[in-house]
Amino acid sequence: MEKVDAIVIGAGVVGLAVGRELARRGLETVVTEAQGTIGQGMSSRNSEVIHAGLYYAPGSLKARLCVQGKSMLYALCERQGVAHRRCGKLVVATEPAQLAALRTLAGKAEANGVPFDMLDAEQARAMEPELRCVAALSSPTTGIVDSHGFMLALQGDLERAGGSLALSSPVDGVELASAGSNRGHVLRLGDWTVEAGVVVNATGLHAPLLARQFLGLDQGDLPTASFAKGSYYSLAGAAPFGQLIYPAPVDAWLGVHLTLDLGGQARFGPDHEWLDIQSPEQIDYEVDPARSDVFYEAVRRYWPGLADGALQPAYSGVRAKIHRPGEPAPDFRIDGPSRHGVPGLVNLFGVESPGLTSSMAIGAYVADLLALPARSVTEV
Ligand SMILES: Cc1cc2nc3c(=O)[nH]c(=O)nc-3n(C[C@H](O)[C@H](O)[C@H](O)COP(=O)(O)OP(=O)(O)OC[C@H]3O[C@@H](n4cnc5c(N)ncnc54)[C@H](O)[C@@H]3O)c2cc1C
């Protein structure tokens, strides 16, 4: 049987970032991916926003890893020429009743160490003349990134550090080694069997289901997967704003917001629709044209100039949830040996937004959970 130091299961942005970090800390690392190319899951069906870290409970993993991951992501993009733009964003209150939500956000931003400015309606309109609002919170460190270019850069770093990628290689079974055992975990990938001291489950939407196939893991402590779809509509014609525009958040959902791609094209979304399915294989990614009514109504609250017929169904993504409708949104759940007692195993559950922004910080966090010494190499 072949042996490697570490197997990371899943080559989305998080799996690639974790694999890169493990390889750079000296482990012979293979990132294994079920699909024929990298990043075909959540990582290619999102808003490509570099989140500033405004929304998350102070001290939570989401807050800490987003803020740290944002800096790491900008630094990598600058070093390696990955397309990105620090375009900034405005979170807007469209009526006085929403001012409290903006104030709450300002409090979180302050606690999380995220720069922001409060603007009155006139100041906001001086920045974005087409905007209708009574006040806004400006977030200058929010940006956008070419997520595929970012993943290719992570893959390049992984390979430069001696790691490799195994495409079209779904893991279909794992027999975990117990504490004190003198052999590693045994993974089955079709006809290939491999032994590894470290296993990281970074399979996004599949993570809770895959963990149920890990022999030797306490099944009673695993989260149940649930799924929430987010659909996007693109705007025909020129973008009306130079930065991202978000409504005041409702609970943990950020609302139907306007994001821009690096070509300057505007899109709106994602909305939030719980799916009544049990596994990712049942997902239908088609965007239902009937949802456009909700979009027109939501967008016109902050952009009354939206013309009839200007929105076109674009694409959708599905969020990896580990809670049920009506329950408060939990933090990222990153289970290491101190939680489940299995040496060398890390399960990543519920890594929805801001997972793209946080990915490199998640990589460092996972390596720390595994007690790998921090690397001393200079960044290249
Ligand atoms: C609608 C939406 C909008 C979002 N917007 C943003 C945003 O603007 N900014 C932000 O920071 N975050 C955003 N996110 C979150 C971000 O996209 C995710 O957190 C991130 O992409 C998760 O990456 P991942 O690698 O964990 O998962 P994925 O990208 O889903 O990768 C998991 C991989 O595992 C593979 N896999 C599954 N099972 C197996 C197996 N058995 N063997 C091998 N491989 C397997 C899959 O094929 C897949 O490639 C958004 C998410 C959604 C859904």
Short description:
The protein is α/β, with parallel strands linked by helices. The chain is 27% helix and 26% strand. The chain has two domains: 2-47 and 148-223 and 329-369, FAD/NAD(P)-binding domain, CATH 3.50.50; 89-140 and 226-321, D-Amino Acid Oxidase, Chain A, domain 2.
Structural features, described:
This protein has 380 residues and is of the alpha/beta class. It has two domains: 2-47 and 148-223 and 329-369, 3-Layer(bba) Sandwich (FAD/NAD(P)-binding domain), CATH 3.50.50.60; 89-140 and 226-321, D-Amino Acid Oxidase, subunit A, domain 2 (D-Amino Acid Oxidase, Chain A, domain 2), CATH 3.30.9. The protein has helices at residues 13-24, 61-80, 99-112, 121-127, 147-160, 207-211, 292-302, 337-340, 355-369, and strands at 2-9, 29-32, 49-50, 84-85, 89-93, 117-120, 135-139, 143-145, 164-166, 173-175, 185-189, 192-201, 214-215, 226-235, 244-247, 257-260, 266-269, 273-274, 311-321, 333-335, 345-349. Strands 1, 2, 9, 10, 11, 12, 13, 20 and 21 form a nine-stranded mixed beta sheet that branches. The radius of gyration is 21 Å and the shape is elongated. The protein starts with a strand and ends in an 11-residue tail after the last helix. It binds flavin-adenine dinucleotide.
